[in-house]
Specification:
By secondary structure, the protein is mainly β. Strand 4 and strand 5 form a beta hairpin. The radius of gyration is 13 Å and the shape is elongated.
């Protein structure tokens, strides 16, 4: 699964930083307890404009939104506080329908 920002205003995608919350999340829209976090090491492509990863096998059937939490900046320094944003598109797994 790949995410490309294109002309979207959220072009600082790279998963970077030391805060415990940094990562890519599959957020279950019906039950947040079923949400799954991927650490930076589990993401295949990790750049400021593109992320690519495999969908975790532990993901329960359902509808998900992707959330990115990062401390990435264009400079060499990282943000003090993590920045997070959620993609509008939904991902359906198993027998789930949007």
């Amino acid at each position: 699964m790949a995410f490309r920002m294109g002309n979207n205003t959220k072009s600082h995608l790279a998963i970077e930083g030391t805060d415990e919350s940094v990562g890519l999340y599959f957020m279950n829209v019906d039950d947040e307890t079923k949400s799954v976090r991927l650490e930076k090491s589990k993401i295949g492509t990790n750049s400021s404009t593109r992320l690519a990863c495999a969908v975790p096998t532990t993901l329960a059937d359902g509808t998900y939104r992707i959330k990115v939490v990062t401390q990435f900046t264009k400079s060499k320094a990282t943000r003090k506080e993590p920045l997070s944003f959620v993609f509008d598109k939904r991902l359906n797994t198993g027998n789930a329908t949007a």
